[in-house]
Amino acid sequence: MVAAPPALADPVVDLPTTWYGPAVARFEAEFPGNPYDPEENDVRVVFVGANGERIERIAYPDGTSAYEAVLVAKAPGPYRPLLYRNGVLQPSRARSDVVRLDTRLPRGFLRVDRRNPNRFVWDDGTPYYPLGFNLGWQMPEMPPMAEQLARMGAAGIQWTRIWASSWDGKNPFWPVNDPGAPRDRLWPPALAKWDALFEACEKAGISMQMVLFNHGSFSTFVNPNWPDHPWNVARGGFLADAADVFTDPEARRRMKMWLRHAVARFSHSPSLFAWELWNEVEWTDASFAGRFSDITAWHEEMARYLRTLDPYGHPVTTSALLAPASTWRTMDFLQPHLYTDAITLFARLGWLPTRAPAFFGEVGPSRPARVNLRAFVRDALYAGMLRNQAGTPMFWYWDLVEQHDLYGEFRTAAKVLDLSRLPHHSRAEARPVLVIPPSPALALGECDWLTIRITAPSPRTVRILGARLDEGDYNRTTIDLDTGQSSVDGVHIGQTGLEVALPAADVVMILDKRSGGCRGDVRCHRETHALSPAMVKLGLGGDS
Question: By its UniProt entry, which PANTHER family does this protein fall under (predicted)?
Answer without folding.
Answer: PTHR31451
